[in-house]
Amino acid sequence: MSDRNSTAARASDRAFLGTALHAPAPGRLEVLRDVIVLVGPDGAIDAIHPGASGDGMAAAARHRTAGTLRTLEPDQYLLPGMVDLHVHAPQWPQLGLALDEPLEVWLQKYTFPLEARYADLDFATAVYESLVDGLLANGTTTVMYYASIHLPATRALADICLRRSQRALIGRVSMDDPAQCPPYYRDASAASAEADTRAFIAYVQSLPGNRGLISPVITPRFIPSCTDGLLQRLGSLAQESGCHVQTHCSESDWQHRYVLERCGISDAAALESFGLLGRRTILAHGNFVGDDDVTRLVGAGAGIAHCPLSNVYFSDAVLPLRRLLDRGVHVGLGTDIAGGASPSILDNARQAVIASRLLESGVDAALERGQRRREASRIDALTAFWLATTSGGIALDLPIGLFRVGYQFDAMVVGNAAGGNLRLEAGDSPQQVLQKIVYNAGRSNISDVWVAGRRV
User: Fold this and answer.
1) How many angstroms separate the CA atoms of 99 and 113, rounded?
2) How does pLDDT run across 305-360, given as a tens digit for each residue?
3) What is the CATH number of domain 6-80+402-455?
């Protein structure tokens, strides 16, 4: 616990008093018991003092008088906001629908017709307002969004996120291959897709009052929906602009094999060849990445958005998460709305634990235990919490997910709530509190959410 300097501490314009929990590293829970967190006007943490220290008591008195002190109840805890690395914003209306279909059928039969409706700006605005409010209520303070191909609707999503103060990385989706994209929903050409992407980047960079809250993302949907010409153009744009990149990679048997047949190399290798693999690249799913791909990802510093709920329905495999973490791949969690049936990152943290245990223990009871097991694959609740917060920030290369001086104050208050499943008791240790929250907390247990120090 420290402060940048006394001047910064005095300049802080709000303060939070209580016990905070965060995970600086996998398997490590850090408890900031009865501290006061001082947040500056830029939304960054200026200082963290023990509440009973001289500096802490002076700061508490000052902010109490000013009406800018938030004091937590004894059964409430301050946690970092959740980071969601993979959301398809236009798919919010189909959450939980048609999950029995294969991915390639689901896209053509349900998803593309829905996404085509975002040519209607009024429809898009109403959906996006509902989506952003819903994610914030679930404690999700940072989201990496895929929008649709429509530039006006994608601008509207950026406007809404800025107005609601959600930290958002947003990409106008690019998809131009007539072999995989329906005529009613695809870019007219690789050149027009690049032009619209450039226009969206310029729009976000000129947003009044943005101050880095909203970032543009170069977003080829995935290799099957993009021509080589488009992928080359977007790769060059990524190198030129330094923007984040997002796309899908080796999600399912179908996608993995499609890329191998078309490109003659793996998904990750093909993305690298197009200039789309770098430190600010987030690859959704990655269930079928091989050892050479893992080396490639580590070398590039790219991240994987692990979407454990969505993988159950569409991916035909369980991500070897433990192996990727042990190799040094940056991994965070994603809901994959609407491929995943829940907008809650906490739900996906639980599923990440379950999926890892199933991979380790095996699922085919007809096989002998030694044959069906994949040893050393499990993660625990604390690692899942780290993935949902700290590791998501690392993958995005952003100062979020931790209570550290200089980091953005993106946070939520979690505690007992009437009708909820979470029961925190006075005698619970911090480790027990964290486990209960990961396994039992829901939307009703999240009473307050802040992004960049602003209550949302």
Assistant:
1) 16
2) 999 999 999 998 899 999 999 999 999 999 999 999 999 999 999 999 999 999 99
3) 2.30.40.10
